Amino acid sequence: MPPPNTPVAHTPRSLSVDFTESLPFHNITVPPPNTPSSALDSPHHNRQYRSRAPQVVEEAVETDSSEIDESQHIDYRALTYADTVNENLICPICKVAFVDPVDTECEHTFCKECIAHALEHNDVCPFDRNPLPQPATLTRSHKIVINQLDSLLVECSSCRAHVPRSMLRNHLDRYCKEALVDCPDKGCLQQVRRKLVDQGCLHNNIACPDCEGIHQEVAMSKHREESCEERQRQCDHCGTNILRCKQTQHEEECVELIVPCIWVQYGCEHQCKRGELNLHKLECNFRLMGPMADILRKEIQTLQSDVRYLTDKEQLQERRIKFLEGGQRESHRHSNYEEWSSQALTPLADSAQVEPLSESTNEYLLNLLGDQERRISQLSSALTELEGKQTMMLFNETVPIKNQIAELQSNQQMTSMHIRWFMNWRKEDQLRLQQQQRRFGGGGGCAGGSGGASESEVDGGGSSSELATPRRSPDSLTRGLVTKL
Amino acid sequence: MAAKRITREYAEISESPPSGINVSLDNDNVHKWNVVMAGPEGSPYAGGTFHLSLTLPPEYPFKAPVLSFKTRIYHPNVTNDEKGSMCIGILKSESWKPSSKILAVLLAVQDLLREPVPDDALEAQIADKFKNDRPGFERDAKDAVKRWAK
């Protein structure tokens, strides 16, 4: 089986319609018969459809087979219809209800696949032998035809249920309990009926408990019921042949099995075959007592459960009262807290006050525990609050500091920029001074001034010591400034 | 597709066979049918039983089926020999339509027995006799039925 998106190779033909069942028309965008109606709601589709302009069925170049699983290809011509199909919906060529109906120019309707086959043999309408142009102009049949076809009830080949034809694909893909689906075990390549999917992979071999033959687990129940040679045995009681795998079921209804009277729990000791039990029922001493006792028993059971419920409720309420009493005392004591102003002493005070009052130490301890828990939670909440405050404060403090640092940094950068510019300016100034000195002192003409300037720029730093000093001093000054900053 | 349609048509005809026509498959081959046709009442062939063989090409229904009389018959439109080839409008390749059914073909044969078409004859002598000497034709046809189709 090719992967779902494998493009289908085409042999060019005068009219090549792809015969894959649910392949849409390339141009007319016919959805496959199983397309849910919601898919027809796209504006694109509606527009194309309402215009009903004749459109040529072009060569289907691209195949949209992403949804088509070829293993589950439905043969729409092999379907069994629930009722006799109206003969107006029967294709004159394949003689079954239309599959993807299309209309010819002479207004005859055929299945897309049938008309394509017919046109391979002869370029005339298969119904009235009118010549059809090449390539044939086929339009998708009117919606009313499609709707009638979609609503035809067909029998599901797996579960025999009747479903509308357009729903068959959906039914098989999702709901049909008998349809074959991939085994839930990813490593197992076999298929299993959908109803057995919940039970995991059943494709391991097990031995039949009756005949010891080896069969797959999935087929075992069928084997035991239908083909196992040891599948039948005689019932020990009634002698009829029964299936071994159905023995327990049979024992529940075997008429020859000896069973006790239905009133056995009230003291009837009679035992007889199940078939004769009805006779005994009529004369059993317990026939009047039994039903009465039954009613009483039920009554007692309900009363017992009521009592149990009420006891539980009462205990709960008692505990609640205790708790509330404890709480009251505590609120009394709260006024004393301030006097003592020491929390460490409270447990002691608690014990001193509550002990004589509480009826059971357990209650007291529970109260105490609750109290402590409450206090702990209070403390923890206070702690978190405090933590929050702390973070906020820290944040508030750090933000202006950060801003200041950034400001200082930018300031510093600006200053160093100024200094650099100043130094450059000084350097040029010095050079200009040097040139002027040379011009006046060396007696050189104006010519070569620019050349001389470049020369002095190159060797000026090293040769004239008197110029070097003033130029270096601002340099070192800047460095000092930078380090300070 | 061919096999499916043929099976369907076969089931249809076997379930409710038209009067005087009986079909069965030759060796369970859906492409080869044995047809037994009774001579229609009111025709010179009445009382005769004619065996026909119907061959459906693999291209059916796009190609017409081939029908021949296995029982010899004295009829202007059927060759008066062992082959029993016949000429019938509906089966001619230029007039065959995929929408035609086998049932229609068989009924057309019955009609042909009731009313021969001398203008489209295979046996010119018989056609002449049919046209010019109707009682003589009927007598000969009845004789032929007694000889071959009893």
From TrEMBL, chain A:
GO MF term (any one): zinc ion binding
InterPro entries reported in the protein's UniProt record: Znf_RING, Znf_RING/FYVE/PHD, Znf_RING_CS, Znf_TRAF
Zinc finger (TRAF-type) in chain: 223-277
Keyword Zinc-finger belongs to the record: yes
Stretch forming the signal peptide: none
Sorted UniProt keywords: Metal-binding, Zinc, Zinc-finger
Protein's recorded name: Uncharacterized protein
Organism: Calycina marina
TrEMBL record, chain B:
EC assignment: 2.3.2.23
Domain called UBC core: residue spans: 1-150
Keyword vocabulary terms for this entry: ATP-binding, Nucleotide-binding, Transferase, Ubl conjugation pathway
One Gene Ontology MF term: ubiquitin conjugating enzyme activity
A Pfam cross-reference name: UQ_con
Source superkingdom: Eukaryota
EC supergroup of this enzyme: transferase
Protein name (database record): E2 ubiquitin-conjugating enzyme
Organism per entry: Calycina marina
